[in-house]
């Protein structure tokens, strides 16, 4: 036990002993006071510490955040068994050992069943409060942790996405300048045309590189313009075929993906008039395919691998659909997923910081309201029981407020943890997911 818990239990024990000594003890002597203090400390520390140890043990073995339902069931069973044993032990020590009011046989004969039952209920209320307090503390930690994790994930994903997009600008520029450098020596007139066309293409690169997705139609038009540049340099050594379905033109792909893949085809394959390189761009089963006949070129130095790796990483941040690569002895093919709609954010399904914090704050407020109701119940009901036993011990009217309010507390708890709005939201989400799977969305 922590020092703070020991101090709290000591003050509770002292306050309880003073109350019982002045309210119920007929002979107010030092000896009776010490016995009352001893009995109060016994009840407080055995019941309080016992329930505290059980709660700490369950927190380590079955945390609320990892197994809520399992933890709730184990908690209910364990506190019922433990408190029954602890109460019978404390009452035995009180009435048989300290006060010597009855013998052991009389105690277990059933004479003290009502007192034991009443004390068990008080112990269960205390235990419920301790478990509720533990759950509340873990909920706060989990809520704070989730918000922090969401912030870190969002910042990390956005930074990664921006880094990948920033690769495109210099990558395209350097490759284009290399082509231009080759043309200046081979064909100066073509180099001039290439320079003019490159300025138009580079404008598209600057416009599109900051976008997450572009339409297939825009990407195809840009790719055709880029292919004209390649034809300027390679002439009959390279041929291009485009066959994309009209229904796919209004859908989306990652920007500059085609240009990067076309670059790869030229970079990794040789092309001559006698053995031309044929590059096909076509749609197939919700994918945009770029295929070329395999004429592998010997590389003077190892490729940096920016193009294809960049596309794969950007798709992984935007969707769960994968980029597929097929390679055989005759051809090399890359399949890019065609997306039906633009995702609002990256695929890790994170909310914005404000929404995540607002949702966590609302949830904490609901749970705090429930535990405020529960704590009030745990304080007021014992007071009403004591008041009833003092004023009218022959008529037990405390049952009615205890039962009525208890039903209200249970209903409140179920609305917060089981069948409230959170349960409705989960069910709605489950039904929508099933419908999406059924209709193949």
Could you explain how this protein is built, in words?
- The protein is rod-shaped.
- It contains 12 helices and 7 strands.
- About 2% of the residues have low confidence.
- Helix content is 70%, strand content 8%.
- It holds the Pfam family 2TM.
Q: What do we call the CATH topology of the largest domain?
A: Heat Shock Protein 90
Shape summary:
rod-shaped
Total individual domains: 2
List low-confidence stretches. Answer: 345-353
Provide the helix percentage: 55-70%
Question: Which sheet architecture does the biggest sheet show?
Answer: 5 strands, mixed
Round the mean pLDDT to the nearest integer and report it.
76
Which CATH architecture of the largest domain would you pick?
2-Layer Sandwich
Q: Which percent band covers the strand fraction?
A: 5-15%
Task: Order the strands across the largest sheet as they lie in space.
Answer: 2-4-5-7-6
The structure class reads alpha+beta
Q: Given this structure, which CATH class of the largest domain is correct? A: Alpha Beta
Number of strands: 7
Order of helices and strands: HHHHHHEHEEHEEHEEHHH
Radius of gyration (Å): 38 Å
Q: Total number of helical segments?
A: 12
Ends: how far apart? 55 Å
Protein name: Histidine kinase
InterPro entries: 2TM_dom, Bact_2-comp_sensor_kinase, Sig_transdc_His_kin_internal
GO molecular function: phosphorelay sensor kinase activity
Organism: Chryseobacterium aquaticum
